[in-house]
Amino acid sequence: MSETTSENDKIIELVSQYIDLSVTPFNKPERTVVKVDKRNPMYGGNGIVYLLQMFDEGELTNNRIGAYMVFFNKGDEAGFHTHGTRNEEELYIVMHGEGEYSEMTKKEGIIRKKIIKKGSITAMSGEGFHSLINTTDEVLIVFVITTNNPK
Predict the structure, then answer these.
(1) Which parts of the chain fold into alpha helices (H)?
(2) DSSP percent split of the chain into helix, strand, coil, nearest 5
(3) Cα separation, 130 vs 128, whole angstroms
(4) Which residue, of 28, 77, 115, 147, is most buried by count of CB atoms within 10 Å of its CB?
């Protein structure tokens, strides 16, 4: 077993302690995570963020439509980024843990910060920028729903 496979298995096992990682796609057998993406760093943030992809490429309009974003350590962060250049909108739904969500209207714009915890939902659209950081010693697990609106 390769180090990457072993690391991916450990991540899936840890996250499975907090949430059910099964997915039931229409007219297909039930399954679990199809791919683990390790981002080190993610959008220039600090630490490591893992994306647990629940759908294969080509299975949906955008395979990132439904994925879990996992921040294991306090300070792990997805840095400021935008989806406007890809004509996407994005929802974050906190499944476990606590963090700080920040947004701004443009790179030099006004920042709004909000503490998010289990059940919190955020929405980013247009050319806005946003970031997310784990603020506690608990793992932060966020379900990400990304739209795709080709123009």
Answers:
(1) 3-16
(2) 15, 40, 45
(3) 7
(4) 77
